[in-house]
Amino acid sequence: MREAIFLVGFMGSGKSTLGKELADKLGWRFYDLDEQIEKEKGQSISELFTHFGETHFREIESASLRHFEEEKEPFVLATGGGTPCFHGNMHWMKEQGKVVFLDIPLTVLLARLKGSEAVRPLLKNIDPHHLTRELALLLEKRRPIYLESAWIVGPNEANADEVIHMLNS
Ligand code: S3P
User: Fold this and answer.
1) Helix (H, G, I), strand (E, B) or coil at 159
2) Whose alpha carbon is nearest atom 8 of ligand 1?
3) Is residue 72 within 8 Å of residue 25, measured between CB atoms?
4) Protein residue with its CA nearest to atom 9 in ligand 1
5) Exposed end of the chain (fewer CB within 10 Å): N or C?
6) 40-97 confidence digits (pLDDT tens)
C-alpha cells in the first residue's frame, strides 16, 4: 500500500496539529484538506458554504480529496470533520492508505470549538444555547463512520510517537 495517512475526526479533534507533527517526524509531506480546497477554489470554507451550500461543498471536498490519488510522495492528510461521511470518502481513503481516527471526548471538543464559528460554518447556524446538544447529535451520527477507521487514537495517545508506534506494530 502507498505511504499515506489520513487523519479523521470531529471538528476540534486536533487533526492538523497531530498531522503536522506526524509528517515532521516521518519526513513526509503534510496537507490539510480544507486548506487545499481554499487554494483550489480561491475562497474560504465559510465562503464556499455561503455561496454554494453544504451539498455542493461536499462535492468540492470529495473531488479535492481524490486529487491525492496523484500524490506520489508519502503524505499525511488532515481531513475535514465531515469528509469521511460523504460520497464514499471513507471507503476511498481506506483503499488509499492508513485511516486514523482521533477519538476525542465531546467535552474536550466543546471547549476547543468555542469561539471558532467564523471559520467553522457548521457552528454558525447553531443557537449557542443548543450547541452542546446539537454537537452531541452530530457526533453521534458521525462516530459510527469514524469508527470504520483501521486505527483509533484516544486523547492520551494523540501524539506523533504513539501513533507511529501504533501504525508500525
Ligand atoms: C466540517 C469541518 C471543517 C470543515 C467544514 C465542515 C464538518 O473542518 O471541513 O467547516 O463538517 O465537520 P475541521 O474538522 O478541520 O474543522
Assistant:
1) coil
2) 80
3) no
4) 80
5) C
6) 999 999 999 999 999 999 999 999 999 999 999 999 999 999 999 999 999 999 999 9
- HSE-CB of 13 using CA atoms within 13 angstroms: 30
Which residue is it, cell 451539498? 55
The C-alpha cell that represents 37 in the structure block: 480546497
Q: How far is CA 15 from CA 50, 53, 88, in A?
A: 24, 24, 20
Band of residue 1 on the pLDDT scale cut at 50, 70, 90: low
b/e sequence 125-152, b meaning 16+ C-beta within 10 Å:
eeeeeeeeebbeebbeebeebbeebeee
Contact status, residue 160 vs residue 19, Cβ threshold 8 Å: no
- C-alpha cell of 9? 475526526
Across the strands, what pairs with 7?
Answer: 78, 100
74-102 burial: b if 16+ Cβ within 10 Å, else e: ebbbbbbbbbbbbbebbebbbebbbbbbb
CA–CA gap between residue 68 and residue 111 (Å, rounded): 32
Enter the C-alpha cell of residue 133: 446538544
Ligand 1 nearest-atom number relative to CA 121: 10
**From the CA atom positions of the chain, what is the Rg in Å?**
15
Separation of CA 11 and ligand 1 centre (Å)? 6
